[in-house]
Amino acid sequence: MMKRNIVFKTVFLFAVSIILISSVYASPIHLKLATTTSTENSGLLEVLLPPFEEKFGIKVDVIAVGTGKALTLGENGDVDVVLVLARPIWANNSVNLTLLKIQIIYI
């Protein structure tokens, strides 16, 4: 019984060690952000993203396209976040949004 207990503890510790080591070498989390080219060119993302990435350890991959394309990427689930400026474009029926949650931020 004692030998079985030692074997179990050894295997358990080995498994935990492997899990901990693999988590250290895991790839960083990436977040895909679709935004407009004007937002990227404004320099806003250069100010906002570095502190966000440092604080949360999440790398943000920016895809700068037109508003319609950004909304389409979000609708198709190709990106995690959509940041667009033109409310009338997505508010009318020309874009069929099937996004799970829409957060509107007015500045």
Automatic annotation (TrEMBL):
InterPro entries found in the cross-reference section: ABC-Tungstate_binding, PBP_domain
Domain PBP: 33-84
Protein's UniProt name: PBP domain-containing protein
Source organism: marine sediment metagenome
